[in-house]
Design brief:
With about 475 residues, the protein is α/β, with parallel strands linked by helices. The protein has helices at about 20-35, 35-40, 55-65, 75, 85-90, 95-100, 105-135, 145-160, 170-190, 200-205, 225-245, 260-270, 275-280, 285-295, 315-325, 350-370, 400-405, 415-420, 430-440; strands at about 215-220, 250-255, 305, 330-335, 370-375, 405-410, 445-450, 455-465, 470. Strands 3-2-4-5-1-6-7-8-9 form a 9-stranded mixed beta sheet, sandwiched between helices.
Amino acid sequence: MMASQPLKVVQNSQKQMPCNIEAEQALIGSILVSNDIYDEISSIVDVKKFFDPIHAKIFSTIEMLIAKGLLANPITLKNYFENNEGLKELGGQEYLINITKFSTSAKQAIDYANIVHEMHVRRELIKISESVLNDASSNEITSSGEEMIQNAEKSLFDLAERGHFNRSFLKFENALKQTIEMAKSAYQSEEGIVGVPTGLTDLDSRLGGLHKQDLIIIAGRPSMGKTALATNIAFHAAKNIEKKSSKSTVAFFSLEMSSEQLSTRILSEQSRIKSNDIRRGRVSESEFEKFIETSKNIFDLPLYIDETPAITIAAISNRSRRIKRLFGLELVVVDYIQLMRSSGKKEYNRVQEISEITQGLKALAKELDVPVLALSQLSRQVEQRDNKKPQLSDLRESGSIEQDADVVMFVYREAYYLENKEPTPGSIEHAEWRQKMDEVSRLAEIMISKQRHGPTGNVKVEFEAMYTKFKNLENQ
């Protein structure tokens, strides 16, 4: 407990910030008496958490000595503070001896560490508030209001995440419990999967759904159906949330298509009316009624679409955090990586930019504990080969994408390439071509070329081009 005679404390020359000097003294005093306590509190506080600069200096020296395997006590610290004017004002080496009188048990030291951490958080909140106030009041417009909001949100979220001081270091038994819970969840699931379901049975069987904290890449050449597949997965995930009546959402960042185009695709797929006919108004009365009825059924779908073009990884991260905080979040979809901008230096080349983007998407997946599904274009070298099936090396700026992704899938439709090779009508070759077209016109392959959780391999699905819909093969 605290001594009856309080020690001299350093007052801030400005307005007094939130602090608890006695808690800092008790914490440092406890460590000086028993260095083992340092291991108990090192995940809660660091040198930046101390309000008193002398306490920060003492704690830093303690850390340095313990790291070298040396004893940290008032005697071993003496040489480091003989000429320290700040400590002299507090009584010199006597101060180091006096604060050991506040020493306590490891359990109470943890409580004091939590108090020191709490005071630090409050001081940081004040700094963030003052920074926002100064920026917003400044006559020099160096950044927009939206950028100020994003910066403030990031600062707040970073501060909140730093408070999760036990997250990074997990005892094996706790990790084992998480694995058992995951297996139990998969066992109890009707679909037999633990991740976010894609709606495609064979794909879910291969992947076990889209796993939390994973970065999943869907890649393909133009017109292969990447966006259609991502939209189908996002819709199914949102319907699954609705079915479970859980408080969560799907966030879809569409950098290429507008929200209206995406919603038209979803309505076309669900009502089975061609999207082209919907756009041109070429629908019968019964089809229009079906269209309206379908829209009513999916009106409350927990799906949020952001159509900001050339969005940065920082903006996606901030908006995803906001959605999770307000509505819950189960899946993030980004269409597509090459249309994004990095938040990095202007002199970055494109490979460095893509590297920052994919690292940012993977970090976001881990930070928000959700799967992030991102689309990627393939390089033109695919078109120059006889075998058009994509490979990992075909990923544009492939190094970082392949490295950072937990799952890489390619969408491949043979019919797309076969269509461009139509022989002269009436010839024997044309008859053979027509037969082959009939076989593959509605077929698509989802090629799993990388998966950290299981085997690679190909999954065959049906693709209805007129409705931009991927579905399970009927014979399966």
